[in-house]
Write a structure and sequence with these properties.
Blueprint (H helix, E strand, L loop, with lengths): L4 H23 L2 H10 L4 H30 L3 H18 L33
Helix pairs in contact: 3-4
Length: 127
């Protein structure tokens, strides 16, 4: 029995959704974890904010740029070349990112005995 297009449509749509979830949905939750491992938590919020803002700007400017260039030239080749060049440059820049070196943590004032430890509270029996 031959297949009809209506028989294949739900399967093809499901395959695309699975592929998108596997590729995009598997990477986005790792951004915060990778940042915490590389830069620790000291500037985690600021770095994650810069990355999220950059992704937002690219998501807003990219389609407008693509549509504008298509209206001027009548082809999508230039926007795809520009997008590929930006992706290649960002991929090269990632090669220069290194984790922060392990620095010894300076002991705090309490550890240096400059500030005395507070006394323990008295024992109060309870029922």
């Amino acid at each position: 029995m031959p297949y009809r297009a209506s028989d294949l449509a739900p399967n093809a749509t499901g395959d695309r959704e699975w592929g998108f979830g596997f590729a995009f949905g598997g990477i986005v939750p790792l951004h915060s974890h990778i940042l915490a491992e590389m830069f620790r938590l000291r500037a985690h919020g600021a770095i994650l904010g810069i990355i999220s803002f950059s992704i937002g700007v690219g998501s807003c400017v990219g389609p407008v740029f693509t549509g504008y260039v298509y209206d001027l030239v009548g082809s999508y080749s230039i926007p795809f070349i520009v997008c590929g060049a930006v992706a290649a440059i960002s991929g090269l820049l990632v090669l220069f990112v290194r984790p922060l070196s392990e620095r010894p943590v300076e002991p705090s004032a309490v550890d240096k005995d400059l500030i005395p430890q507070p006394p323990e509270p008295p024992f109060i029996p309870t029922m």
